[in-house]
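re: ur question from earlier - yeah i can do the single chain one, its not a big deal. heres the input i used so u can compare w yours
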Amino acid sequence: MGSVRARAAAGATVVVALALIAAGTAVLLVLRGNLQEQAGLQAEVAAREVASKIATGTPYDKLELPDGEDHPVVVADEDGRVLAVGEEVRAVDGKPVGGAKQGAGSVGPGVSGDDDDDDRRGLKPGEVDGDVDHRDGTANVDGKVADYRFALVEAKDTRGEKATVRAGSPLEPEQDAVGSVRTAMLSGLPLLLVVVAGVTWLVTRRALRPVEGIRGEMAAITASTDLSRRVPVPSSQDEVGRLARTTNETLAALESSVERQRRFVADASHELRSPIASLRTQLEVGVAHPELLDVPGAVEDTVRLQRLAADLLLLARLDAGERPADARVDLAAMVREESSQRIADRIPVRVGEPASGEVTGSRGQLGRVLGNLLDNAQRHAVSSVRVGLVREGEWVVLRVEDDGPGVPEGERERIFERFVRLDDARARDDGGAGLGLAIARDVAVRHGGSLAVRAGSVFELRLPVAD
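and the output i got, formated as tokens:
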């Protein structure tokens, strides 16, 4: 049962089989009940006809009883003695009636009914009881024993003597009809189940054909590692079609992610190559000519490598989906602390009166964002770097502004891409690697906020206020 088609066909077949068995059983029970009721009604008509004759004073030996095979009739008194019996009726429920017309034989006390019941009914001479009792039993008619539905009706003759008329109606037609229907059902059930299984197999196969196409294409993509390929999308608007479209969207996102990773590795390798080569050259020169070793330059290259490695590590953690800490951070205190540590910067940082505002997140990562924004402002400012913190509804807004030339409007989103630097003419050693703003935006987004350039060179960090 490893195939979906096989499981679907088997499941549908079992369900249909159970439903048909339940429905067939119900049909047979209803049919049997209706036929038994019909037989009981026929027996009651025959019994009342004989009881009416007894009530009108017809002698027992003069009663015209129905044919024994169609309606076996036995008339008995209160003691169970047979007063009259139908032609060729030899026994009822295994008790012989002897073919007597009057007083010969007995059918047992159960035939005549209950005496207390009779007293309560209060039959008068010449009356027929309105109630009737129905029982199933057997009758031997001319040596042939068969099942019958009996009706028991009581009557009083004109002399006030009570008699019980027991008339039967054969159950053989009911048994034949139920048997025929049961046989037809049992004969047709296997064929119907085969048809259900076959149709389910074909329908499921047709429905799953696009899935097999998707699976085959995904296997080919995995084998070729060509993420530019896409799975076929069926024209239907069902679950399979949505699966194919979602798969293609996933492949597109995966392709984009892999491409970003490739560019990231290439750019990181390119950025690392220059300081590593410079440091190696200086060390080799120092080994050969110690007096020519540029120690400050080597230290500067080492620091640059350290910062770049730290940036790459943080980006890797962010890309891996690392969630920020769930701590409360006072941004006003963080601004004051960060500004006080930058007294040696090229341009002093001016801090406006910060509004109180606490956010939830990582103190270290948010401090890194502020540091990266101040580093960026220091590189581009002419004479002024300003930091402001305001509260706007449910948001805390941190603004870092410098009086530099500003960011062209068409480049205000591009500068947040990794390894992007708009001042390519400047020597690399004087600037960063193009990761600071990318890191700042990633951290802002993961804290539920945003980072954008508003006008000129105003960088605005928006974070939700802590609950």
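The CA atoms of residues 71 and 225 lie 88 Å apart. not sure if urs matches, ping me
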